[in-house]
Write a structure and sequence with these properties.
Largest sheet: none
Order of helices and strands: HHHHHHH
Number of domains: 1
Distance between the termini: 36 Å
Mean pLDDT: 88
Length: 143
Amino acid sequence: MPLTLQARRLGFRELLTTETIALPFDYGCFIVKGSQLRAKRDELKKVLRATVAAYDLSIQEPAVAKKAIGKYTRTADSETLDATYKENVKDYALRIPYVSLPGLKSIIDFRAEGSAEVKKLALEKMFDNSLLQEIQKERSGAR
C-alpha cells in the first residue's frame, strides 16, 4: 500500500510532492554495472523493451495493470489498487525510464548528507541511456 494512502487514512494530508516542488527525481530506472551492459546488451535491451511495452499496456488498460498490482501485492482493496496505480503508473512512471543528470544529482546530494565521499562521484560517468535511446528510436520509427 502506498505510504501516501496510509498517511491519508491516518488523517494526514499531502503538502508537497517531488513534482510540486520541482525536485528532479528519476523513478523506475535500472541499475546495471557497465561490464554487464557491455556483456549482455541484447538481453538488457529485451528487458527494457518489455518494460516500455508494460508501461504502454498499463496506460491503455488500467484494469489489467490493477489486476497485476493486486496479484503481486496480494490485495483486492480497490482504494489501494487505485492509489498504487495512480502513484506508480500515472504520477511517476516514465514511458522510457531515462536517467537524467539532474535526477541523479538529487539522489547523490541526498546520499552525500551521510557520506562526504559520495560528492566525489563523477555523475556523467554513472549512467548510460544508449539502450533506451535505441528503443525510443525503434519505436518512433515503427509508428
